[in-house]
Every structure is written in structure tokens, then in C-alpha cells.
């Protein structure tokens, strides 16, 4: 019974937060107030609040209470190697991919250095905007070695390139090195994204390798500042014989 009650409290408040009924920064009722409202114990309420906290809906401040977090920011894992479609499937929001370019082009000096090839060597270049809830807020610029990826069908560029690479070309993608920085927006950012008055943008650079360690893809993913946060989970290792 208690499990049903704290699940009910969790579902109730997560729905209110997701719908915007409870806005970011708003303080939610205390444990005793919630216990009275739901005719349950404070222990049961505490479990529901812990679930809300663990799933990014609230932040608990000792001595002050629990406050609603900004859920309009979309979580992108830092350490994971995951496609936009896989992230989008988890968001439950209206999304669209707009393909601006999908062609074989001479490699620029900057990209050649990142892919460890000679300047002007041909690379597959795919430029796409990611539109979420009617706003273009991510610009993805992907570069692939044609020796590994001979071509990229238009349908794959519009849907999921990784599904094509792994499902059709049977590539075994293994790991990526990531670099994250905040940089000034470019004229291309202004042209292809809905940036409003933002002067800076979050840039995530990915160097993607196959299982044989071959670097075959370089991606520059440019994110509007107000919509995204990059998350990871870390646990401190406990040293044997050295109590905290």
C-alpha cells in the first residue's frame, strides 16, 4: 500500500512539474503537509521526494525544503555515446530534424586536423538542425571518412545515421572522446538556429572510434545555452582501510 501511495505522490508531482503547473524555483509543500494531504506517513512522503530528486524534478535544501528544478533543460549524457534519435525517444516531445547539407566535400584544414587526414581529402559532411517544440536549438555538423562510410542516404540523415551505420553497414562503433566548451555564436549559428539574443553557444566536439580504434567520425554539436544541460553520474571510490 505504501508503495502505491509514494508512487502516486511521485506521479502526481512529476506530472505537475512537466506540465508547467509547478514552475522552476517554486517550493513544494513540506513533508508533514504532504503526509496530511495524502493521508500517509512522512516516511512514505520522504520516499516520493527522494524519487523526485533522483529523477531531476526537485532539489532538496536542508533546512529550507524542496524546490522545483528547471525541467525545460534537456539532459544529454556526457560520458555516453548516444544518438540524438535515442535521446529524443526518451524526451517525449515534438521533434524534427532539418537537413541542410549531405554531401561529399573537400576536407577543410580544421576538420582534417581533427580527423587526422590531409586537407582537401574528401569527407562526408552532414549538417542538421534539431528542432524541439518548434524551435531549432541544436546544430549538428558531422564528418565521416568515406573509406568507412561510402555514402549516407537522405532518409538516414533525416532519421538516424547511427541506425544506418550499425544496421546497414554493420559498423561496430565503440567509443568517443568529447570536448565541451562555451563559444561565441557564428554567423552560421545565427542563420540556421533560433538563437534569440544569445551571444554564446555550447559546443560539444566528438571524436568517434570503431572497435578496432580507428577514428572515422568527427562531430561538432552546437547547443543553445538556455535549453541544455550535460549530465553524468560519478561515484567516489572508497579506499580500503581509510575511513571517511
UniProtKB/TrEMBL annotation:
It comes from the Bacteria. Residues 3-71 form the HTH gntR-type domain. Keywords: DNA-binding, Transcription, Transcription regulation. Coiled coil: none annotated. NCBIfam families: trehalos_R_Bsub (TIGR02404). This is Trehalose operon repressor. The lineage of its organism: Bacteria, Bacillati, Bacillota, Bacilli, Bacillales.
Amino acid at each position: 500500500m505504501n508503495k502505491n501511495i509514494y508512487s502516486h505522490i511521485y506521479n502526481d508531482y512529476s506530472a505537475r512539474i512537466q506540465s508547467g503547473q509547478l514552475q522552476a524555483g517554486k517550493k513544494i509543500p513540506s513533508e508533514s503537509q504532504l503526509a496530511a494531504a495524502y493521508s500517509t506517513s512522512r516516511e512514505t512522503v520522504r520516499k516520493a521526494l527522494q524519487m523526485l530528486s533522483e529523477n531531476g524534478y526537485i532539489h532538496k535544501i536542508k533546512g529550507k525544503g524542496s524546490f522545483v528544478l528547471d525541467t525545460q533543460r534537456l539532459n544529454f549524457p556526457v560520458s555516453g555515446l548516444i544518438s540524438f534519435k535515442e535521446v529524443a525517444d526518451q524526451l517525449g516531445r515534438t521533434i524534427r530534424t532539418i537537413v541542410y547539407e549531405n554531401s561529399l566535400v573537400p576536407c577543410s584544414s580544421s576538420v582534417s586536423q581533427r580527423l587526422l587526414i590531409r586537407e582537401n581529402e574528401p569527407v562526408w559532411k552532414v549538417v542538421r538542425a534539431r528542432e524541439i517544440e518548434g524551435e531549432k536549438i541544436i546544430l549538428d555538423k558531422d564528418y565521416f571518412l568515406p573509406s568507412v562510410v561510402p555514402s549516407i542516404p537522405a532518409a538516414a540523415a533525416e532519421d538516424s545515421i547511427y541506425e544506418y551505420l550499425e544496421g546497414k553497414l554493420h559498423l561496430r562503433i565503440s567509443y568517443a572522446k568529447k570536448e565541451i566548451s562555451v563559444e561565441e555564436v557564428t554567423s552560421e549559428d545565427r542563420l540556421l538556429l533560433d538563437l534569440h539574443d544569445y551571444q554564446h553557444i555550447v559546443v560539444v566536439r566528438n571524436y568517434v572510434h570503431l572497435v578496432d580504434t580507428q577514428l572515422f567520425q568527427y562531430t561538432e554539436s552546437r547547443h543553445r545555452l538556455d535549453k541544455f544541460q550535460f549530465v553524468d553520474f560519478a561515484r567516489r571510490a572508497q579506499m580500503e582501510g581509510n575511513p571517511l
